[in-house]
Design brief:
Layout (H helix, E strand, L loop, with lengths): L1 E5 L2 H18 L4 E4 L6 H14 L7 E4 L1 E3 L16 H8 L11 E2 L8 H14 L5 E4 L21 E4 L2 H12 L12 E4 L2 H5 L3 E6 L5 H9 L17 E7 L10
Parallel strand pairs: 1-10, 2-3, 2-6, 3-5, 6-9, 9-10
Antiparallel strand pairs: 4-8, 7-8
Helix pairs in contact: 1-2
Length: 256
């Protein structure tokens, strides 16, 4: 595992985008796993700039997103029908800004009639394409990856997951409050790739910024391996793992 500390969020974002861009240039038909949340936005906007100004070509790239709320989604053919779905987030922050083909975009479908069957098919599609070349990751306030809440097994697969109160509180502040949606209206379940699914990807790029994440990233990187901090699975990741932090997020690391 490579741990890289940058001075600030902007430097983190630009450096992370350069790693993704290098993969796209080396393997134009690569498979990338994307994540939502505030941290990767800077990287996504830098990738969009590289596409617009330097011709970075996403036309052969296939994407799979980590997660989605159960019960909401958007139709990417009608992007003006916006809501608080992660599909909407990805469309606004990245997909509408680059030349990725709509048929190559895979986001868990929150309105699936049979969510369990959809999750199995999602796993099968990832495998049919030879797996994910690079998975983008963040970390939740309680140490989770995707919507793999504390206690999730390290061999878990894509599935429906019940959200805990910490995740609901964090996501309300990040996404719902500003949209004028009450906490009571927020979804209580989500579709998420499992920890086992993530651990099978060929490489991982984990981005963490801000002082508020300093304690939890220290636990994930230097604390005991524990399903109570599902991102600690990075310690047993067998692929090529790169963790990029800004100085604030890295401030509690003991072995810096």
């Amino acid at each position: 595992m490579k741990i890289i500390v940058k001075d600030n969020y902007e430097d983190l974002s630009v450096f992370a985008a350069s790693i993704v861009a290098d993969l796209v240039k080396r393997k134009p038909n690569c498979v990338i796993g994307f994540a939502t949340g505030s941290t990767p936005i800077g990287m996504y906007h830098e990738l969009a700039r590289l596409h617009k100004e330097e011709g970075l070509d996403f036309s052969q790239v296939t994407s799979f997103n980590l997660d989605e709320y159960l019960g909401i989604s958007i139709d990417l053919e009608k992007p003006y029908e916006m809501d608080q779905s992660y599909a909407r987030f990805m469309y606004e922050e990245l997909f509408s800004r680059i030349n990725i083909k709509q048929e190559n975009i895979n986001v868990p479908y929150g309105l699936a009639e049979n969510p369990d069957q959809f999750c199995r098919q999602y796993e099968e599609k990832i495998k049919s394409l030879g797996g994910i070349d690079m998975q983008i990751l963040g970390i939740g306030g309680d140490g989770h990856w995707g919507f793999n809440e504390p206690g999730s097994s390290f061999d878990s697969r894509t599935r429906v997951e019940k959200l805990n109160s910490k995740t609901i509180d964090d996501n309300y502040e990040a996404f719902y409050k500003k949209a004028g949606v009450s906490k009571e209206e927020m979804p209580r379940y989500a579709l998420t790739m499992g920890i086992g699914t993530i651990l099978e990807t060929k490489s991982a790029l984990m981005l963490v910024n801000g002082e508020k994440k300093a304690d939890i990233i220290q636990k994930a990187l230097e604390g005991p391996l524990s399903t109570e901090v599902t991102a600690s699975a990075i310690q047993i990741y067998k692929g090529d793992a790169t963790v990029i932090l800004d100085k604030a997020a890295a401030s509690k690391l003991k072995n810096i």
